[in-house]
Backbone:
């Protein structure tokens, strides 16, 4: 993986508010997961967990056989795979930061240190473009509270704001092994609730597409046809 040269990384810091600039949106990314709950899932479980970094290295061999992904420098359990998502944002953060003149803020619902951050004014008042990525497994019980739904509703009604909801795929829900084989995702991996509950702000119909042996779904399990509404979003698998 090519390294992205960037400023020194910090950790455990408090976000410094970004000054509003017309035509230069402040971009924020919000991971809906509980990092500890995801990282602490039992490795003897097949369903409802991310791969470990060791499993990723085996499947993707030799792509991650460099020193920066070895046990000397990189987490080898599930936490390592979660960190791949963070690393995957670096180029976007760099590009968006150069274009807007603002650093891209990345938030987690519950971070590595167990600090919980709901989607509230602390995030939204400092944001013009919000990207919500639904990478929480449903077994971790992450639900958007009514207060968060109301806060996001007020956010999207503010002039100059944009909201991107990105639920992850929903696979393995069926108990039919043949159907799960078609999905080519034998383990059960239904992903999360906050993006789905935030869809209550709008009303676009539930849509499901199947291609290349995979299933992508607009909404997360437990919602679908129950939540009808009206906005259009781009879905990229």
Residues:
């Amino acid at each position: 993986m090519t390294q992205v040269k960037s400023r020194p990384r910090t950790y455990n810091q408090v976000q410094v508010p970004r000054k509003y600039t017309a035509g230069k949106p402040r971009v924020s990314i919000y991971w809906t997961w509980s990092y500890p709950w995801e990282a602490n899932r039992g490795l003897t479980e097949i369903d409802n967990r991310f791969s470990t970094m060791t499993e990723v290295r085996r499947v993707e061999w030799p792509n991650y056989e460099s020193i920066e992904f070895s046990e000397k420098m990189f987490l080898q359990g599930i936490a390592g795979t979660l960190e791949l998502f963070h690393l995957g944002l670096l180029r976007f953060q760099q590009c968006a930061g150069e274009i807007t003149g603002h650093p891209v803020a990345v938030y987690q619902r519950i971070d590595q240190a167990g600090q919980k951050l709901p989607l509230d004014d602390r995030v939204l008042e400092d944001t013009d473009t919000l990207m919500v990525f639904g990478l929480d497994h449903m077994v971790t019980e992450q639900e958007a509270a009514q207060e968060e739904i109301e806060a996001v509703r007020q956010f999207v009604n503010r002039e100059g704001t944009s909201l991107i909801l990105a639920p992850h795929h929903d696979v393995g829900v069926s108990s039919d092994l043949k159907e799960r084989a078609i999905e080519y995702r034998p383990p059960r991996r239904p992903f999360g609730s906050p993006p789905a509950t935030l869809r209550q702000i709008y009303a676009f119909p539930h849509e499901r597409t199947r291609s290349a042996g995979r299933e992508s779904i607009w909404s997360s399990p437990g919602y679908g046809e129950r939540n009808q509404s009206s906005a259009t979003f781009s879905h990229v698998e």
Notes: The chain has eight helices and eight strands. Residues 27-40+79-226 form one domain.
